[in-house]
Amino acid sequence: MPKKQRNAARTLCKSNFFVKLNSWCCLTLCLGLSACTSDPSAYRVPGTDFDRDSVFFIVRNPEDERGLAILIQEEMRGNSFIVSVGKEDERPADAGLVVRYGAQWHWDITWYLLEFQITVHQPEGDLLVASAHSYRTSLARKTPSNVVRDTIGQLLGEIDEQ
Are residues 83 and 124 in the same domain? Predict the structure, then answer.
């Protein structure tokens, strides 16, 4: 093979290597960034107002072994709401709003709160009046108290904006 053809073949191989390397780096970066997902959201029924005199009752989730009900209660009390916690059948008569929550925990070296949702209902007819949701993958994880704080902040922020 003549020298010019060998040099052209080497140049072509080198350029293909860099194209493949560049493509591999872009793919790795895209996949890595997609693992950092964080998706908080909140909604409330138009016309629903929560004032500081609202009495909330948090229904303790029987699957909650990590004390999320207490974290919710502390966060809502920190926002000057009247809040109590208990089983569904322990709801006080003066509770004007019922709070329910759910959580999905995931293992990635340690347990973390992958998904957290909270809903607020009127006791009469169990009508949904507001909800908030948080989804955080492993690389975007936060402590459970921070996830609860952010989710309730989204819920109250959404409520305050409307």
Answer: yes
**Under 8 Å between Cβ of 132 and 118:** yes
Residues 88 and 128 in one domain: yes
What tokens does 11 get? 């140049």
Range of the domain at 150: 41-161
Of residues 106, 102, 90, the one with CA closest to residue 37: 106
In terms of domains, do 26 and 75 share one?
A: no
Task: For residue 162, give the nearest of 81, 63, 74, 45 by alpha carbon.
Answer: 45
Give the separation between CA 116 and CA 102, rounded to whole angstroms.
6
Query: Closest Cα partner for 147 from 83, 66, 33, 84?
Result: 66
How do residues 5-59 score in pLDDT, each as one tens digit? Answer: 656 555 555 555 554 545 544 434 443 444 455 566 788 888 777 777 788 999 9
d(CA 41, CA 38): 10
pTM metric for this prediction: 0.71
Q: What is the CATH number of the domain that holds 92?
A: 3.30.160.670
